[in-house]
Write a structure and sequence with these properties.
This protein has a single domain, classed as Up-down Bundle (Outer membrane efflux proteins (OEP)). About 65% of the residues lie in helices and about 10% in strands. It is built from eight helices and six strands, in the order βααββααβααββαα. The longest helix is centred in the first third of the chain and has 67 residues. It starts with a strand and ends in a 17-residue tail after the last helix.
Length: about 400
């Protein structure tokens, strides 16, 4: 099966262990919500006892009593606890979504690395084929005494060098594929076929719009806001400790053939412990959470700005290659081969010119790789799946 980039991301979001673990965190938070929704947090308490009385001057008899008590919260703790549990659930969901965002970014970067390494391998094959053609021409010219033997040896050296570089790129391609398989939750020795559809797609969007979308979409910013709400809920809950819970009880006794029934209530007096430490810790958590929201917002703005700058620089470089440099490369390689065949240039000149042209191909790949690295980083910084919706100009063509 041939995977597109979107299919790879979708597969990773289903099978990546980090994503699955983050979703289990949502289940934990859902359990906390179920617990907070209980009408009463404490179970009833039942106490029972029996006593035997007897003596020489009185009749022996047994007396016993039963007490049933129930504790009640009277300061609105249940409402606060339910709100707190839901804030934590929203925070857990946002954290899971942020894990998905990070895994998506990782998969995109690994996909791009694999795709561009594969393209580099194709260039190396072209170089190898070109060098073998030059070697064949050199051997034919040597046979007729048109060139010195050292030119053949030099051509052989260039073939060997191209073969070595091809093998290095092949190893890099295999290593990038293993990393991609691991990120997908697959065995490192899995086999994947990827559809390479990475071509230059210009993007025009203002920095202010990017920041606005990022602050609206980024799940880690949403998680920070819910964490702040949770901290405020924990503070309110700590403050309610000052108000003691009330326990109501019913009592029944059997004493000397008499039935005695009664009831009452009990509550601790908050004279010595009004939970000052818990309140102080809660206030500190609120302050930390507020700083966390501010820090996350600043980090998001910085990530967006950096990605936009990198994207703009890479786009300028890619456009320069596509408009001015690449159209001449293929024609120039064939012209060089024909020139050497006709004896109008020596081998050293051919090697130098070929190196410059191949460097141009590699430079274009490097620029395009940098462009997509910045584009994927911008998608992650903005918390959006793809930038295609923001493309305002048609692509210049696939390379």
């Amino acid at each position: 099966m041939v995977f597109t980039l979107d299919e790879l991301v979708e597969y990773a979001l289903i099978n990546n262990p980090a994503v699955l673990s983050a979703r289990k965190g949502v289940g934990i938070a859902e359990g906390a919500v179920m617990q907070a929704d209980l009408l009463l947090q404490a179970n009833p308490e039942l106490e029972s006892g029996s006593f035997w009385r007897g003596g020489q001057e009185r009749e022996n008899f047994t007396e016993w009593d039963v007490t049933l008590g129930q504790e009640f919260e009277i300061a609105g703790q249940r409402k606060i606890r339910r709100s707190l549990a839901r804030d934590k659930l929203h925070a857990a969901r946002a954290t899971a979504a942020d894990t998905e965002r990070q895994v998506s970014y990782e998969v995109k970067q690994l996909y791009a690395r694999y795709a561009f390494t594969k393209r580099l391998g194709q260039i190396q094959l072209q170089v190898l084929s070109f060098n073998r053609a030059i070697l064949d021409i050199a051997e034919k010219r040597l046979a007729v005494g048109d060139v010195a033997e050292f030119q053949v040896r030099l051509a052989e050296l260039e073939v060997q060098r191209a073969e070595t570089e091809r093998l290095i790129v092949a190893r890099q391609l295999q290593a990038s594929l293993k990393k991609l398989c691991t990120s997908l939750g697959l065995s490192p020795d899995c086999r994947l076929e990827l559809r390479d559809d990475l071509r230059y797609r210009p993007v025009e969007i203002s920095a202010d719009e990017c920041v606005r979308l990022a602050l609206e979409k980024r799940p880690d910013f949403q998680a920070a806001q819910f964490e702040r709400s949770s901290a405020m809920g924990e503070l309110r809950l700590a403050q309610r400790v000052r108000y003691p819970n009330v326990t109501f009880f019913l009592n029944y006794q059997r004493e000397e053939d008499e039935d005695i029934a009664g009831g009452g209530l009990s509550l601790p007096l908050p004279l010595f412990n009004r939970n000052p430490g818990g309140v102080h810790a809660g206030q500190s958590r609120v302050a930390m959470a507020e700083l966390g929201v501010q820090e996350t917002a600043l980090r998001i703005k910085q990530e967006v700005q950096t990605s936009l700058e990198d994207l703009s620089l890479a786009a300028s470089e890619v456009e320069a290659y596509e408009r001015q440099i690449l159209p001449r490369v293929a024609e120039s390689l064939e012209a060089i081969r024909q020139t050497y065949l006709l004896g109008e240039a020596d081998l050293a000149e051919v090697i130098l010119l070929r190196k410059e042209l191949i460097d141009a191909e590699r430079g274009y790949l490097t620029a395009l790789s940098s462009y997509y690295s910045a584009a994927f980083a911008l998608e992650a910084a903005m918390g959006i799946p793809r930038l295609e919706a923001l493309c305002s100009r048609p692509p210049l063509g696939k390379r």
